[in-house]
UniProtKB/TrEMBL annotation:
Keyword annotations of the record: Cell inner membrane, Cell membrane, Electron transport, Heme, Hydrogen ion transport, Ion transport, Iron, Membrane, Metal-binding, Oxidoreductase, Repeat, Respiratory chain, Transmembrane, Transmembrane helix, Transport
GO term, biological process aspect, one: oxidative phosphorylation
Annotated localization: Cell inner membrane
GO molecular function terms listed in the Swiss-Prot or TrEMBL record: electron transfer activity; heme binding; iron ion binding; oxidoreductase activity
Family: Belongs to the CcoP / FixP family.
Protein's pathway: Energy metabolism; oxidative phosphorylation
Source species of the chain: Sulfuriferula nivalis
Protein residues bound to heme c 1: C135, C138, H139, M280
Pfam families: Cytochrome_CBB3, FixP_N
The protein's name: Cbb3-type cytochrome c oxidase subunit
Length: 306
């Protein structure tokens, strides 16, 4: 706006006129814009030379930039820049960064690891990653487990033992719980009585007479449950037979059943069919001894290590 006259200055035009009076304003783009435009063009050209860019037939220009990484067979490779190789390189770097800690974990006795705050925080963070990559598919995120599938690792109830050495053995060699089916050994009434006895051990209100008969059967040579579950029904950790008195259920979905009859049915089903599906895989061929040691401490700390 012209301050004195209050009128706009006449706009600059390119000087051409169409149809008599149609004119084109001359508004050059600002310098900063032009400069950044040329910089972008230059950056694009540099990019085309450095990185994979242009498709040619079934392939593409690979660019001059390279990445060197160590592949999973331990062979060092140099290749043109690409995101897969970049991931490998970053993984290599993470492994190198973790190495001194792994060495320290390997050299430190179990009890001392948990008392060393720096080492312990490494165990928690690296353990969490290893656990979610390898174990969470069965034991669930955080190790809470799932009835009928895999045990809860955050409680202090252990099928095979919660001491460091036991957990390490479980992870290294795997476990396979087995209970024989009783459908052909026991009649329906006996199975019901045993189920009532088992439920009564968890303080569930069942027919006391039936539970009493179940108690006798449990400790008899006919059913011989005591042989594996122990006289007191606390289970035997050498064979992973469940503690039947702790109100923690892995296979018989008692907590998920609403009525007493349904709870009974869940236990009867286990007694009739037995158990053969509790398979904890062995990890000795899939994880290094150091990784297993670290996971042992991690699982021990999840909740109820002994
Ligand atoms: C394919 C499923 C599966 C995967 C994967 C798996 N587990 Fe297990 N795990 C089980 C089952 C099932 C049991 C119970 C075995 C039984 O009942 O005999 C178990 C048992 C255990 C136990 C014993 C618990 C106790 O009460 O004594 C520990 C410890 C354990 N797993 C840790 C791990 C760790 C650590 C990983 C990862 C490296 C892992 N598991 C991966 C299925 C799995
Ligand atoms: C040969 C040994 C053996 C005998 C005999 C045996 N059990 Fe078991 N039982 C086991 C094992 C091992 C498990 C745990 C399996 C697993 O976790 O994979 C188990 C699990 C159970 C469970 C499931 C517990 C849960 O957490 O869901 C019940 C219930 C049970 N047994 C009751 C009985 C009764 C009742 C008898 C007698 C009729 C009996 N068992 C006889 C070995 C045995």
């Amino acid at each position: 706006m012209n301050q004195k006259t209050g009128q706009k200055p006449a706009p600059q035009t390119t000087g051409h006129a169409w149809d008599g009076d149609l004119q084109e304003y001359n508004n050059p783009v600002p310098t900063w814009w032009l400069v950044s435009f040329y910089i972008s063009v230059a950056a694009a050209v540099i990019y085309w030379f450095l990185y994979p860019a242009w498709p040619i037939g079934g392939s593409y220009t690979k660019g001059f930039d390279t990445i060197t990484y160590v592949n999973d067979k331990g062979v060092t490779k140099t290749t043109h820049w690409n995101t897969r190789a970049l991931l490998m390189k970053e993984t290599n770097e993470a492994v190198t960064a973790q190495k001194p800690y792994y060495t320290k974990v390997a050299d430190t006795p179990f009890e001392k690891i948990t008392k060393d705050p720096e080492l312990d925080s490494f165990v928690v963070s690296a353990g969490k990653q290893l656990f979610s990559d390898n174990c969470a598919a069965c034991h669930q995120q955080g190790g809470a487990g799932k009835v009928g599938f895999a045990p809860n690792l955050t409680d202090d109830d252990w099928l095979y033992g919660g001491e460091f050495a036991k957990i390490q053995q479980t992870i290294t060699h795997g476990r396979h719980g087995y209970m024989p089916p009783f459908a052909e050994v026991l009649d329906d009434k006996q199975v019901s009585q045993l189920a009532d006895y088992v439920l009564s051990l968890s303080k569930i209100a069942v027919d006391p007479v039936s539970a009493q008969a179940g108690n006798a059967l449990f400790h008899s040579e006919t059913a011989a449950c005591y042989y594996c579950h122990g006289d007191n029904a606390h289970g035997r950790q050498e064979i992973g037979s469940a503690n039947l008195t702790d109100r923690i259920w892995l296979w018989a979905n008692v907590p998920g059943a609403d009525t007493i009859a349904d709870k009974e049915a869940a236990v009867k089903n286990v007694i009739r069919k037995g158990l053969n599906k509790g398979v904890m895989p062995a990890w000795q061929d899939r994880l290094s001894a150091d990784q297993i040691k670290l996971l042992t401490v991690y699982v021990h700390e999840l909740g109820g290590g002994k």
